[in-house]
Amino acid sequence: MRAVVITQPGGADVLQLADIPTPPVGDTDVSIAVVAAGINGADLAQRRGVYPPPPGAPDWPGLEVSGTVSAVGGSVTGFAVGDEVCALVSGGGYAESVVVDERLVLPVPRGVTVESAAALPEVAATVWSNLVMNAGLAHGDTLLVHGGSSGIGTMAIQVGVALGCRVIATAGSAEKVAVVESLGAAGIRYRDEDFVEAVARLTDGAGVDVVLDMVGGDYIARDIRCLAIGGRIMVIANQSGDESTLDVGALMRVRGRVWATTLRSRPIGERAQIVAAVAEKLWPLIESGRVQPIIDSVFALAEASAAHERMESSAHIGKILLSVGPPVEQPVEPPAGAPVSPGR
Question: Which domain holds residue 58?
Answer without folding.
Answer: 2-120+272-323
